């Protein structure tokens, strides 16, 4: 299953390792004023889900905070978020992949 990660900043994952991460593509986006969203998009058998979350997945935060995630159910908003997520993938293509 293909996995696209849009990462703001450093990523230690090495994509393309056979048997480990060959289906993972990492696009690292760095900018001075870039905000980091906590939006997660999943697809299973054509069923796309979009989740909004407060979690930033840093160990220091997961261990000491209560985080919440909720599905985005409005079809128009869900499609808008999916369209926004597709922009960096199209714009940076393979040239910005880690």
Short synopsis of the structure:
This protein has 98 residues and is an alpha+beta fold.
What does this structure look like?
The chain has 98 residues and is α+β, with helices and mostly antiparallel strands. The protein has one domain (3-92): Endonuclease Chain A (Endonuclease, Chain A). Helix content is 24%, strand content 27%. It has helices at residues 59-64, 75-92, and strands at 3-7, 24-28, 39-44, 47-53, 69-71. The strands form 2 sheets. A 3-stranded antiparallel β-sheet has the order 3-4-5, with helices on one face. The longest helix has 18 residues, at 75-92. The protein is globular. The relative contact order is 0.20.
Provide the gyration radius in Å: 15 Å
> Per CATH, which architecture?
2-Layer Sandwich
First-to-last CA distance: 18 Å
Number of helices: 2
CATH topology: Endonuclease, Chain A
Coarse shape: globular
Q: Quickly name the level 1 CATH class.
A: Alpha Beta
Give the name of the CATH superfamily.
Answer: Endonuclease Chain A
Helix content: 10-25%
Our count of domains comes out at 1
Strand order, largest beta sheet = 3-4-5
Low-confidence runs (pLDDT<50, min 5 residues)? 94-98
Our estimate of the beta-strand percent is 25-35%
Give the number of DSSP strands.
5
Structural class: alpha+beta
Average pLDDT: 78
Succession of helices and strands: EEEEHEH
Biggest sheet statistics: 3 strands, antiparallel
Domain Polyphosphate kinase C-terminal: 2-88
Pfam family, one: PP_kinase_C
Organism: Klebsiella pneumoniae
GO cellular component, one term: polyphosphate kinase complex
């Amino acid at each position: 299953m293909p996995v696209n990660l849009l990462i703001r900043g450093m990523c230690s994952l090495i994509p393309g390792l056979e048997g480990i991460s060959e289906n993972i593509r990492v696009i690292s986006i760095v900018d001075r004023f870039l905000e980091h969203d906590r939006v997660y998009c999943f697809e299973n058998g054509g069923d796309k889900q979009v989740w909004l979350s407060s979690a930033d997945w840093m160990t220091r935060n997961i261990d000491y905070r209560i985080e919440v995630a909720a599905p985005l159910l409005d079809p128009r908003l869900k499609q808008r978020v999916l369209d926004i997520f597709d922009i960096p993938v199209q714009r940076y293509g393979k040239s910005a992949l880690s």
